[in-house]
């Protein structure tokens, strides 16, 4: 056994290709070719792995006993030199020692392109540690796994955290790990012009062995070095078929060609993405726009996502379109043609690699329901992938829970239908931080721990979720970190996995923080219903019945039918007398959720006051408290608005106190500004606009028109 000591000498055996030094190779991702065999490309990634390994070892030694390990690099194939430990990095093609190990049968079990071997051996009186793989990506994965074995971890971008080991064991005789990922595609839907992917985020993904990102347009070469595939596209029919696009002679696309748009209720629908699939000219125009985009980005593109509109208004009702079958049948015709157009460009030599095509089964545009007819003749299921997106799912129940009859059961039946019909790779999408959930202190730990093994058992080959912000994660750090673990190995023990996370992130207060996170999991699992259903129904009622009037006439005289605020049994205002207040993994009434957040916020404030906290742990607690406070205020705003609504609608209590309370909460949210790293922060002035209730507040009370003063005076991350 070798542990940290003052005289520790570690030599890292790695190929630097044609570069002068290991450090130079590690920084040269923009100088090599990534889509063709290139030994220098291998050297770039493997040398970067060596640098990461050296830095990690030094960090561990400093944290454990405040000593520095002497780490140096040596050329592969030379004589073993005097060292405490020699670490051999590489593949059989890049490192002669790894080739010799493979020839001797020492790499049995390493067959996956991203898998690795970590093996301790003695050779010529020298202790050797092999981190070997079949590809450069496998080598990098192996380095990060070895550093985790030593005690390092990465719970959020830009940080290296140690589980505070008293002693670091670099080498032990019995060390022998052979591992490979269960899911082929593992990552996030990130970025846009408003939220560009950062270097720190890409590095965090690699350290947690994720390999897919949509889409890092700002750092494509770095993504390639880290083994992260790049996807572009998304709601492409919505984006590329725009009725307001100036087409010819000053006319918009819709003005020039209304017949290209979907026939709905007897009229051609002027809405983005609603194409008449049977109109050949319309289809050709759509693909011209798409192919222009693809060719512009083909140099870095691994995957193109060809999705429909996410508005629910996608499919034409004309006679010719109806003859093609249901929404999925028509969509598959377009997908098939898209695949053929990509292949044609590749065969012409205009693209130097095959681009994977993904299409999206999405419940908001009816394509989540599987096709009713056979796939188009010749449909390519090898380089075409299916993404499944059940956006209105329940997070309080596992996806396959038969008790979730209102939501998940319907989704699960549709998903199973696609699995029976599509035999190519299937990517499961999730919504852990999108739209209604953005910037909230959400934790879906228990549900995720149930869902990911279920997806694996049902043949899913990849998984991603929308959306990941470039920073300011707070409690969502657990969501992101846990997802990386489960996508690599769905069999991870849940409790031990969580204990590792909290040791890394919170050090001496790990146990207390874990208890608070478990309460958060319970309190936020039903959050989709709060922000999507309650806020949505409030907006609809006020908008459709009272227009833009500042004062609401609550008798609804002459108005449209009112929607009940709580039209799902998943969420109620009050706890029923015969209920314990729980549904699945979460709470299902606002009374209990509001009380839970009062306790959680108090718990985080108490942890912050503890003395002698490491700086990293304190910073993490501060970030967590900011988002927990915001989320608690947001939920109470919904709660008080619902009480106010109920009092007016049914006359069962006085509405005045609820109005006064909700306006006080609104004022606090009006003075809260999100850090710019948060998802959506650049699109809103403050937290009040992120609640989905600013419009009802304006309509009901005239509140919000003068909020600019508060916004100008706001301090980021501070609630007054």
List the uncertain runs. 705-720
Strands of the widest sheet, in order across it, are: 11-12-13-18-19-20-21-22
Secondary-structure arrangement, i.e. CATH architecture of the largest domain:
Alpha-Beta Barrel
**CATH C-level label of the largest domain:** Alpha Beta
Number of strands: 26
- Number of discrete helical segments: 22
> What's the CATH superfamily of the largest domain, by name?
Glycosidases
User: How would you describe the oligomerization state of the chains in this entry?
Assistant: single chain
Number of domains: 3
| Arithmetic mean of pLDDT | 87
Helix share bin = 40-55%
Query: C-alpha Rg, in Å?
Result: 28 Å
Biggest beta sheet summary: 8 strands, parallel, barrel
- Could you give the distance between the termini? 55 Å
Helix/strand-derived category reads alpha/beta
CATH fold node name of the largest domain: TIM Barrel
Task: Report the principal-axis shape.
Answer: globular
* Beta content: 5-15%
Textual characterization of the structure:
- The chain has an eight-stranded parallel barrel with strand order 11-12-13-18-19-20-21-22. The chain has a six-stranded mixed beta sheet with strand order 3-2-4-6-5-10.
- The model is unreliable at 705-720 (pLDDT under 50).
- It is globular, with a radius of gyration of 28 Å.
- The protein is built from 22 helices and 26 strands.
- Helix 13 (445-457) packs parallel to helix 14 and helix 16 (510-524) runs antiparallel to helix 18.
- It is of the alpha/beta class and 720 residues long.
């Amino acid at each position: 056994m070798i542990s940290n000591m003052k005289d520790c000498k570690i030599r890292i055996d790695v190929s630097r290709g044609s570069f002068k030094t290991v450090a130079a190779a590690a920084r040269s991702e923009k100088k090599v070719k990534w889509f063709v065999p290139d030994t220098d490309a291998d050297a770039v990634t493997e040398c970067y792995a060596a640098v990461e390994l050296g830095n990690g070892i030094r960090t561990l030694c400093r944290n454990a006993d405040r000593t520095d390990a002497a780490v140096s690099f040596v050329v592969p194939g030379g004589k073993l030199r005097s060292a405490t430990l020699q670490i051999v990095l590489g593949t059989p093609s890049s490192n002669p020692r790894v080739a010799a190990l493979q020839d001797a049968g020492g790499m049995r079990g390493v067959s996956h392109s991203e898998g690795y071997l970590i093996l301790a051996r003695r050779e010529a009186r020298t202790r050797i540690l092999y981190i070997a793989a079949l590809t450069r990506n496998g080598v990098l994965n192996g380095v990060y796994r070895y550093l985790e074995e030593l005690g390092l971890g990465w719970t959020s971008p830009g940080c290296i955290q140690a589980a505070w080991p008293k002693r670091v064991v670099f080498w032990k005789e019995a060390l022998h790990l052979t591992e490979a990922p269960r899911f082929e595609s593992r990552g996030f839907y990130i970025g846009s012009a408003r939220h560009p992917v950062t270097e720190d985020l890409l590095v965090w993904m690699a350290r947690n062995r994720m390999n897919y990102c949509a889409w890092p347009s700002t750092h494509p070469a770095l993504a390639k070095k880290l083994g992260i595939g790049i996807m572009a596209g998304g709601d492409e029919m919505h984006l590329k078929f725009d009725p307001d696009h100036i087409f010819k002679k000053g006319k918009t696309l819709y003005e020039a060609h209304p017949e290209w748009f979907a026939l709905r209720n007897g009229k051609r629908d002027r809405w983005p993405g609603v194409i008449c699939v049977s109109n050949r000219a319309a289809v050709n125009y759509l693909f011209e726009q798409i192919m222009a985009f693809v060719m512009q980005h083909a140099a870095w593109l691994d995957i193109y996502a060809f999705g429909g509109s996410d508005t629910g208004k996608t499919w034409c009702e004309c006679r010719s379109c109806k003859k093609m079958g249901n929404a999925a049948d028509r969509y598959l015709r377009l997908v098939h043609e898209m695949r053929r157009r990509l292949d044609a460009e590749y065969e012409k030599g205009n693209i130097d690699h095959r681009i994977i095509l993904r299409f999206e089964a999405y419940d908001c545009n009816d394509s989540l329901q599987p096709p009713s007819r056979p796939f188009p003749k010749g449909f390519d299921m090898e380089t075409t992938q299916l993404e499944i997106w059940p956006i209105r799912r329940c997070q309080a129940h596992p996806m396959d829970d038969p008790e979730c009859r209102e939501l998940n059961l319907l989704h699960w039946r549709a998903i199973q239908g696609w699995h029976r019909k599509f035999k190519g790779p299937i990517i499961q999408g999730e919504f852990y931080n999108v739209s209604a959930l953005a910037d909230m202190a959400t934790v879906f730990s228990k549900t995720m721990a149930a869902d990911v093994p279920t997806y694996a058992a049902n043949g899913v080959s990849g998984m991603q979720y929308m959306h990941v912000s470039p920073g300011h994660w707070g409690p969502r750090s657990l969501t992101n970190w846990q997802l990386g673990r489960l996508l690599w190995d769905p069999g991870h023990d849940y409790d031990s996995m969580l204990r590792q996370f909290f040791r890394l992130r919170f050090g001496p207060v790990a146990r207390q923080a874990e208890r608070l996170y478990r309460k958060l999991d319970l309190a936020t699992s039903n959050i989709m219903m709060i922000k999507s259903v309650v806020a949505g129904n409030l907006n609809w009622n006020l908008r459709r019945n009272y227009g833009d009037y500042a004062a609401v006439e609550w008798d609804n005289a002459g108005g449209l039918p009112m929607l009940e605020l709580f039209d799902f049994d998943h969420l109620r205002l009050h706890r029923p007398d015969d209920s314990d207040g729980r549904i699945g993994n979460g709470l299902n009434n606002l009374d209990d959720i509001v009380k839970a957040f009062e306790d959680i916020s108090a718990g985080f404030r108490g942890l912050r006051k503890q003395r002698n906290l490491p700086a990293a742990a304190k910073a993490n607690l501060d970030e967590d408290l900011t988002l927990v406070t915001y989320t608690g205020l947001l939920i109470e705003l919904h709660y008080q608005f619902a009480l106010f609504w109920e009092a007016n609608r049914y006359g069962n209590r006085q509405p005045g106190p609820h109005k006064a309370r909700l306006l006080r909460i609104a004022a606090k949210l009006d003075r809260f500004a999100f850090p710019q790293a948060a998802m959506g922060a650049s699109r809103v002035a403050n937290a009040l606009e992120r609640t989905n209730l600013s419009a009802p507040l304006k309509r009901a009370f005239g509140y919000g028109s003068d909020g600019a003063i508060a916004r100008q005076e706001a301090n980021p991350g501070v609630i007054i």
